[in-house]
Structures are given as C-alpha cells and as structure tokens.
Amino acid sequence: MKFRKVAIGLLLLSLLGGTVVFANGTVQKVRLIINGIESEEGGVTVDGKTFLPLKQLANSLQAIIEWDNANKRATVYKPNVHMFLYKGNSPFGAVDKGFQGKISVFSQIDNLKKGVSSVKVTITDPSGKEKLIQTEEVNPKNDNFWFRTGEFEYKFDVAGEYIVRFSVKPAGVEEWFVVSEKLVTSKNP
Predict the structure, then answer these.
(1) Do the beta carbons of residue 162 and residue 184 sit within 8 Å?
(2) Which domains does the chain have, with CATH numbers?
(3) pLDDT tens-place string over residues 132-155
C-alpha cells in the first residue's frame, strides 16, 4: 500500500514537472548588453514581451530608482548631470601620467524630479581604487542646481582611465545612486 502511494506520487510529480517544463518553453533568455558590456543577469522574453532587471538597467543608465512596495510600483528618475574638471580656472579632460595638483569638480544638475538630501563626488583610478573627493548635504529648492567641490590634491600615478562619479542620495533613502560619470585619461608624456 505504501509503495503504491509513493509510485502514484512520483507519477504525479513527473506529470507536473513535464507540464512546468512545457509551459516554460515559451520563456526565452535574452542577453542584455549596455554600452558594450554584457549583463550577468540578462532578461527574459515571455509571450513576445521582454523583461529586464530594472535595478541593473537603471544603474547602467545612471538613474535613481524608487520602489513603492505598498503599490508594487517602480519609478525611475534620470536627472541630467554635466561635470567639468578644473585645474585652477582651466577645464581639463586629460592629463599626463604623474600629474599632481589641485583640481575641483563642477557639476550642473537639472531635470531632477526626485528630492535629494546629499551629493557625493568620487574618483576611481585605473586599478579600481576609489577615493572620496567630497560629500555634502544639499536641499535644492527646484529641479536644478550647481555643485562645485572644494579644491583637492590628486596625483594621476599611472596611465589609464580615471572615472569621476557624481552620486546622489534621495531624501529619506540611505542608498547612493550614481547619476553621472566623467572619464579622465592619463597618458604617458
């Protein structure tokens, strides 16, 4: 009797598993490539509709995500951020390897549809080591504002690409969102 119950249970599981595999046949994996870099997660196509991982997509697009769990709603905000790097009063985008001096970062932010409480500017060297340039609490009164870091001493030790990132922390949230990046090339003299 016990063997019969086990056999019937296994038969039902086999049929159910086959049904799930058959139903899953309409789901296709999708490779997601953003700016030439393939995403680890990718997406899926179900019945002709493509679904992508929102957080990864928004991070790649340098946007802010707001999740409203009560209403099961995700909102994406993409501010425009333009950054300029200055040596004194002269803007620059490339330096010779070994350059050391005082620089500052000027950021112009507009189309900001989400309130922010803090901003952060960092620089990452070609090896991936990140240095905090400045973080500051802000309280913009409208959808645009300017932010300039104080001058800071920095040395471009090696040739390669350095990434300056501008991040915001939305009001009432503890997570930072990178909303702009600026590439600085350090080349051999």
Answers:
(1) yes
(2) 2-52 (no CATH), 76-187 (2.60.40.3880)
(3) 999 999 999 889 999 999 999 999
